[in-house]
Specification:
Layout (H helix, E strand, L loop, with lengths): L18 E4 L2 E7 L9 E7 L4 E7 L4 E15 L2 E6 L3 E4 L5 E5 L5 E8 L5 H11 L5 H6 L1 H4 L2 E2 L3 H10 L1
Antiparallel strand pairs: 1-2, 2-3, 3-9, 4-8, 4-10, 5-6, 5-7, 5-8, 5-9
Amino acid sequence: MNENTTFAPLLTRAATAETTADPSSVMTLLADSEGTGGQLTSYRSTFAKGAGGAPAHFHTKASEMFYVLDGSLQVLVGEELSVLERGDFLLVPPHTPHAFAAAPGAEADVLFVFTPGMARFDYLRLLGRVMRGEADFEEIKASSEQYDNHYVDSPVWRAALAERG
């Protein structure tokens, strides 16, 4: 191992990767911080047509990267709405409110990367349970500090969701 490397190479095979699913999306857990020496956390989400994603929130410690593998993803960054298409990349720095969902009438397949990494897989599992009705959203709100996910109100995002129906 390189003297500057604090973790071993990590390979996650598609066939054996853990997934968590709800009625509108499937998240494939790829790399959490303990396997990357804290460098990053990564997962892939596939969203059904018009599926919701995340309400407006921000992170205090991590930058969040979005790479659209296929489809279209509607995003809010600050107070600006836009649609990311296949091949588009977005980097959201810490303390920047953002939200996302499959674009209206579209599916989306997105690779997410957080850097630096933190143990987020338990958050994603909890999110799946909430979306399936197996846990209460209050559990997510209570975990804001633990998972560095801080929810905020966004009139722009509320309006965008209202237009979706």
